[in-house]
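Working notes for the structural subgroup meeting. M.R. asked for a predicted model of this chain before we commit to crystallization trials. I am recording the input and output together here so anyone reviewing the notebook later can reproduce the run.

Input as submitted:
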Amino acid sequence: MKKTLKLIAAALAAVTAFSCASATAFADKLRTVDGVKYRYSDSGEQLETYSGFTSSETGRRYYKNGIVVKNKWLKTASGKRYYAGSNGILYSGWHKFSNGWHWFSEKGIEAAGNKTLFGVNYSFSKKGIWNGVDGKTLTSIFNVLNDTMPEDIYGGVYFDNDSGIITVYSADIGKMKEAVPKLYPEMEIRECTYTYAQLEATAKALNDNSSKFPEAHLNVSIDVQHNWVETGTDNISDDLRGFIDALEFGGCVHLTGDELSLDAE
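Returned structure, recorded in token form:
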């Protein structure tokens, strides 16, 4: 009796496994024939042309009556907006149109109204146009980058008012590209020698020991753009140079001041 029950159970398991495999093989299948995408039944029968989203390693696309949509805005009944590019892939991240910058999620949904991205608050119009950078946004961007970037490669962040470009400096550009979120439409990564942590440590050492060089009147600041510690002084003495040379990252110190004043003749 037990042997019979085992055989029945094994048979049922085999039938169930076959049924599942068959259903999986044909259920909800999408196939492209002569450039047109069709839906297929669970038995493999061709049904109607497919309309809807698809996802792949290259990105998301939208099909209308079996044909991929390209170079076109899309809008759902609920008001979500997308943009299909020249290859049909829905835009994601920052993209610039003639009316300004727009931001799209990984699924391709356009941002509108007030939106928090990577911990930074942005404001978009109803049509998805970013209202631009302001002091608050810049401060938030700086804070996120300074707080989240890998200390072993991060060299700081610099905003150029003339070009409107935010530059992230790094001792390892390849690694930084994987770490930095796209917080701002025009962001670029540039290589540097010293990390921001090293610049900070050097600046702190100079400030903490400034009393040893009272005649120097040290004025210490970090210059991210040039990747150095700017050190203004009234007196560049040999003792001060010796102290800087002995620092672990003394090479990042940029001394400015008058070593010798000559009277014009």
